[in-house]
Amino acid sequence: MTTQYERLKVELIQVLAGLGNADTLPFLRPLLNDHSSWVQIETVEALRYISDKSIIEDLKKLLSSQNKDLVDAVKIIIKEIETKV
Question: How far is the C-alpha of 13 from the C-alpha of 48, rounded, in Å?
Fold first, then answer.
């Protein structure tokens, strides 16, 4: 069940993604470990717009998740970040 708190987090993530710069990483990084898969996936998607290579190790930790959607999103984002010039 989605809570209002989760919705608020997702909205915040989307705002931070819109800024698209590495200054938002200290706020996004902890959300990768949120208990909500929805929040985690939204955070991973936000990191796509920031494309900072320093986040790759944090993303790799999520590859052991049981959530297939999360793992698939992480794989895609890692590949995109690694191939950006």
Answer: 12
Span 4-83: which CATH code?
A: 1.25.10
**pTM of the complete model:** 0.90
Closest CA to 74 of 35, 18, 13, 33: 33
**Alpha-carbon separation of residue 41 from 9, 19, 30, 75, 85 (angstroms):** 12, 18, 13, 12, 24
- Structure-token pair, residue 85: 């010039």
The mean pLDDT values, 10 residues at a time, for the chain of 85 residues are 88 94 94 95 94 93 96 96 82
